[in-house]
Amino acid sequence: MSVPQLQLNDTTPITPDDNHNQLDKTSTRKSLHQNIFGKLRPLPFQYHWTVWYDKYTPESDDPSTKNKLYILHEDVADIATFYRVYNNYPWDKVRARDSVHIFRKGVDPVPEDPENRNGGCWQFRVPKGKALAFFHEAVILCMANEFQAALEKEHDHVLGISSSVRFNSHLISVWNKLGDNELSIKTLERTILERLSPDLRPSGSHADGYSYRRHGEE
């Protein structure tokens, strides 16, 4: 099973709307994007990020084994680099049960990493029709420190975003470092829901639409 390859074309102009016009269905979402891009365009990100591909294998069901992790882009330092990666990635070729992770550089997207060991994640089950838009917005909000700023008082950290393909949905996870800090967990939940575009917010009940999972929980 091959991994979808990332082909970067540095001559392609990068704009926030490239290949995303279909995502901007509401003026609210456009306004959100404009505010975020306005903050990011002049300066590099506060943190550098790494893009990973996580290929599922049958052996991955054994807790003693790991999925096969591949680095697609090791150092995403600014918004232009992010869009060179994002706009050129073949999202439609990500297979069922495979995942894409965007994590702070130096942090592996696995629970065993020292930064993740005591943490957890908010996990959202998103219908396929909205999954790419949801992932795109969540990643931009994460890279722009919109989530991180909300957790500063709790000394917590948002470490990355994952998207795992399922049959008719994607599991999109926002990982944080402190899985035992209830205030931090609730603050992150509220911030995610408030900052996402209204048409992307979960419409189902809390139990069915999304939940928080501490690493190591079944």
Automatic annotation (TrEMBL):
Name of the protein in its database record: Translation initiation factor eIF4e
Signal peptide region: none
Domain of life: Eukaryota
Keyword Protease carried by entry: no
Alphabetical keyword list: Initiation factor, Protein biosynthesis, RNA-binding, Translation regulation
Family: Belongs to the eukaryotic initiation factor 4E family.
Annotated Basic and acidic residues bias: 17-27
CC terms in the record's Gene Ontology section: eukaryotic translation initiation factor 4F complex
Annotated region (Disordered), positions in chain: 1-28
Species of origin: Aspergillus glaucus CBS 516.65
Biased composition (Polar residues): 1-14
